[in-house]
Amino acid sequence: MSGVTNKFRRSTLGIPPLTGRSGPGVVDRLRVPYTYCWSPSVIPKPKDWRNTTDVSGFYFLDGSTGYQPPAELDAFLRAGEAPIYIGCEPSRSLVVRPTLTTDRA
Fold first, then answer.
1. Which of 20, 49, 79, 100, CA to CA, is 20 to 30 A from 70?
2. pTM metric for this prediction
């Protein structure tokens, strides 16, 4: 498991760290509920998934037109090119600025 994750487990939660052997199946062993946020009309929940896993549908913000980001976020967004959001799963999402350029001879 990640050093950051295990540090948080020890120092904040007061629970033992996970190892490469104990970590991968911990969600299933503890029957931790998990929700996927896509429409079951688009991709139905597979019948072989546990009852602790669900498909809830998409999340939408209602009336978000008056939202004002915190000053630090606003400054970041205005500081350069628009960032690119890469979201593979909630705990491993990245926001990066485009920096790659290619030169052709």
1. 100
2. 0.43
